[in-house]
Write a structure and sequence with these properties.
The protein is α+β, with helices and mostly antiparallel strands and about 120 residues long. It contains three helices and five strands, in the order E-H-E-H-E-E-H-E.
Length: about 120
């Protein structure tokens, strides 16, 4: 499966850089967002291709763990592996804005939380 991180060229590039640097090993999105895009949910063991904003393969990542966590139940321990946020309040503000832009925000929306590892960098 292929996918893009983020909802803009800038966010996509920032997230790819975090994954490449090893600072991002977890990501998440709202379950309704996957459904709206017609995307298959991540599956443990599967290797997917992350695309850059232009659609070119950038990275191969392998899913290690998948959890379903309500937005309002996200905890501080899941923030550092995501790489972009300083703390839980920053995560909540960032994801609420992201989910509102996509029309998927609700205080208790189910977040699909994926722990992964980069297995190949096609940009090297």
């Amino acid at each position: 499966m292929t996918f893009r991180y983020g909802d803009s060229a800038r966010l996509n590039a920032d997230i790819l850089a975090l994954v490449r640097a090893g600072r991002k090993t977890m990501t998440c999105d709202a379950l309704p967002a996957f459904e709206a895009r017609g995307e298959t949910l991540p599956e443990e063991g599967r290797i997917d291709i992350a695309l850059d904003w232009s659609g070119k393969p950038a990275l191969a990542v392998q899913t290690l763990k998948v959890e379903h966590v309500p937005f309002d139940r996200m905890d501080e321990a899941r923030v550092p592996p995501q790489g972009e946020f300083s703390d839980l309040a920053d995560w909540r503000a960032g994801y609420e804005a992201y989910l509102r832009r996509a029309g998927h925000f609700a205080p208790d929306v189910t977040m699909v939380v994926e722990t992964f590892r980069m297995v190949e960098d096609f940009g090297k």
